[in-house]
TrEMBL record:
Residues 74-212 form the L,D-TPase catalytic domain. The lineage of its organism: Bacteria, Bacillati, Actinomycetota, Actinomycetes, Kitasatosporales. Residues 1-18 form the signal peptide. Keywords: Signal. It holds the Pfam family YkuD. It comes from the Bacteria. This is L,D-transpeptidase.
Length: 231
């Protein structure tokens, strides 16, 4: 094979999230994958990037195997360490997170087994730091959650056609850390802190994910303090 052709193939392999020849698949190189047998990786080149790659993986016969891959978008201000993130910075939090449940304005794709909640006219996601419903779905809008500090989910017809809740700051929410971080369908550009993929990829991810296999999502960069392999 000519060197130029080999270089192109190697670059393409990296873009798609596959390991180059001689290197173990990405999950094999990570410090933790969540303990399950399914994993989503969302990788950007560095913390200033607003684009990257989402890859979903299955663990089979003791090895991680790529199940699918798609181009991804991140926050308009790039990525930042999840443990020190500040709300309203338009950054995507790096780290390893569970995936509590999926939701969408449209019906769940065929084959979806994850818990799936349909968005209705009175469905909101509270981001009000003063509310008892901070970083929670509220239906209708909680009395102590200001509408100006919440997302009216049904108004995001493109992005929330299909979405997966990322368990960032979810189990025990820390005020001012951030709320409403999802894996969802692409909008017109970078996100406000979520991870987004094309519509078809989101449908494939939902049909693939099996809650019985403990899927998690790891978000990070290729190298440095926020390297995805550190999580």
């Amino acid at each position: 094979m000519r060197p130029a052709v080999a270089a192109v193939l190697a670059a393409t392999s990296l873009l798609l999230g596959a390991a180059p020849p001689g290197q173990a698949p990405l999950p094999e190189r990570m410090a933790d994958t969540g303990g399950g047998t399914q994993l989503i990786t969302a990788e950007a080149s560095d913390t200033s990037s607003t684009t990257g790659t989402v890859t979903w993986w299955d663990r089979r016969d003791g090895r991680w195997v790529e199940a699918g891959s798609a181009a991804a978008r991140f926050g308009a201000k790039g990525l930042t360490e999840g443990g020190s993130r500040t709300q309203g910075t338009n950054t995507t939090p790096t780290g390893l997170y569970d995936l509590p449940y999926a939701f969408g304005i449209e019906e769940a794709p065929d084959g979806t087994t994850a818990p799936y909640r349909r968005v209705r006219q009175d469905s909101w996601w509270c981001q009000d730091n003063e509310s008892h419903s901070y970083n929670r779905w509220t239906e209708p809008l909680a009395a102590d959650c200001r509408a100006t500090e919440a997302e009216h989910l049904v108004t995001y017809g493109t992005q929330y056609a299909y979405a997966y809740v990322i368990g960032f700051n979810y189990a025990q929410p820390v005020r001012e850390r951030g709320a409403g971080i999802f894996l969802h369908v692409n909008g017109q550009g970078p996100t406000a802190g979520c991870v987004s993929v094309p519509r078809d990829a989101m449908r494939r991810i939902l049909a693939w994910a099996d809650p019985g296999r403990g899927p998690h999502i790891a978000i990070g960069t290729t190298s440095g303090p926020t390297a995805i392999t550190r999580y």
